[in-house]
């Protein structure tokens, strides 16, 4: 069943939807577990940074944001942040902590409403897209909930879900790029240490080393209520490790699929919800809410147009 959400529920602004269709080649990876989303900047400083890299001028809006608080204020003013919970989460999780300014990105650009490169040819989604997805999942991301973040990338959305489900909940984050998983592990460790007031852990040493363990034969790192898993979420061994006999209350997929993957729908508990971009990889897609009824029936609701890179197919990384 496919339906449309009322316009008052959640929709990206027209400028953002237009910009999403204009993503430059430099910011369009061929296959990713990450979302995208761009808008338009007008600052001369930003234009110079963009032109120096041969990028499109239509990359971001709200360039005046020089802090995480101003970024959230702008998202709220656009009507993208509606609930107090989502607003509070995005105020507490600083986006700058999850962007890699060593790539040549000015630090303050972290707060622009734009996707940004994070390494491995991947990008962190625009804040407006993150806000939209958080709002769509808010009703299911309750304290104690079990969440799955497919294509966790920078770890930013994972951190937001971690805060929403609380200490009694659990977020399983799956990322296929090892460098990104390690990078996000550092960022998540710092974020958790700040939130819960503990000594900052380290992936390589320090107060509480984040040593990988094995789960269903897959390396897994635990940070507070977060489990970081390396692999392709559509491959059976990774699915088994991610689920560990559990079903999820909510699933976020940060990439586009032609149809909601049955492998992931099977992990969704009755009454659960998935948010995923549905459509062909080389065209505009539809951000969709996929709900599983108590009887197992699937209902798909279109929200807005987006343009995201495709989710990697099973065994895409296997040598030929």
From TrEMBL:
The keyword Cytoplasm applies. SUPFAM superfamilies: S-adenosyl-L-methionine-dependent methyltransferases. It comes from the Eukaryota. One of its GO terms (cellular component) is cytoplasm. Its main location: cytoplasm. Transmembrane segments: none annotated. It is found in: Cytoplasm. Its EC number is 2.1.1.77. Keywords: Cytoplasm, Methyltransferase, S-adenosyl-L-methionine, Transferase. GO terms for molecular function: protein-L-isoaspartate (D-aspartate) O-methyltransferase activity. The keyword Transferase applies. It holds the Pfam family PCMT. Signal peptide: none annotated. One of its GO terms (biological process) is methylation. Belongs to the methyltransferase superfamily. L-isoaspartyl/D-aspartyl protein methyltransferase family. This is protein-L-isoaspartate(D-aspartate) O-methyltransferase. It comes from Chlamydomonas reinhardtii.
